[in-house]
Design goal:
Oligomer: single chain
Largest sheet: 5 strands, parallel
Strand order of the largest sheet: 2-1-6-5-7
Number of helices: 8
Bound molecules: S-adenosylmethionine
Shape: elongated
Number of strands: 9
Radius of gyration: 22 Å
């Protein structure tokens, strides 16, 4: 699976993903992250990629041309004919686990990171297929959101997690949060691991975990719990 990130700060993308599980996935070539520097496609002497907004207002806007040229060059190099092109923006659909699962089916995904006040609308209209936000707050750039997406999608690629079942029973499956987890020691500062987890009785453990998932979801995410209940009824 190939992620192509159009960015003004390739070093952020490269530095942010080459550790831990995503780093190992790249080493094993299960996932490939290709950070493309938009500035390399600036056609002026000073490598300028932004300008003042028409109509006035604060800040600068990323220009259409270098982004379009970077995209065009990338399209010449990749095999996928109509790859999904994601613009990371607070104005997009909020990213969630089902979306990650959907994106994990692709071979190539292009992620466009904005900066400053954003990107000239015309190039967005020309190349973008998906507008994605990572939440209702405004960040300085699209690099962190792109890394969030890459991390969440990569771990769903077969072979990336050591144990493929660890992505199977996780939060948001069936609209539930995951049950609480414990590891050694059995007693930590007088707090004991629940007995059932030490019983070796798999059916009881499963039942306890399901119950905990439901309770936790009801308490922490009533919106998800409503969906879970609704699904069970229908
Ligand atoms: N002026 C824009 C607006 O009000 O919608 C915000 C621009 S923001 C300062 C700069 C860039 O950061 C955006 O172009 C986008 O790529 C990225 N960004 C900021 N917040 C984001 C979020 N919540 N999700 C995804 N991308 C975000």
């Amino acid at each position: 699976m190939n992620f192509h990130v159009l960015t003004l700060f390739p070093e952020m993308i490269e530095g942010g993903l080459n550790a831990s599980i995503t780093g190992r996935a790249m080493e094993k070539e299960l996932v490939n992250v290709n950070a493309v520097n938009i500035r390399d496609y600036a056609m002026n002497k000073h490598k300028r990629v932004d300008d003042y907004p028409y109509g006035g207002g604060a800040g600068m806007v990323m220009q259409a041309e270098p982004i379009y040229l970077a995209y065009e060059d990338l399209m010449r190099k990749i095999n996928t004919k109509n790859p999904r092109v994601v613009y990371l923006t607070p104005q997009g659909q909020t990213f969630h686990q089902n979306m990650a699962q959907d994106f994990a089916k692709e071979n190539d995904i292009i992620l466009l990171c904005g900066h400053y006040e954003g990107v000239d609308e015309r190039v967005l209209e020309m190349i973008v297929t998906d507008y994605v936000s990572i939440g209702d707050y405004v960040l300085t750039g699209g690099e962190l959101p792109a890394m969030v997406m890459i991390d969440a999608i990569s771990r769903l690629v077969p072979g990336v997690l050591h144990n493929d079942t660890s992505a199977e029973f996780e939060s948001f499956q069936e609209d539930l949060l995951e049950y609480p987890q414990y590891t050694r020691p059995e007693v930590f500062m007088d707090k004991k691991v629940p007995d059932v987890l030490l019983s070796g009785h798999h059916a009881n453990i499963e039942a306890w975990r399901k119950e905990q998932s439901v309770l936790r979801t009801k308490e922490r995410r009533p919106d998800l719990y409503e969906r879970y209940i609704h699904q069970k009824i229908t």
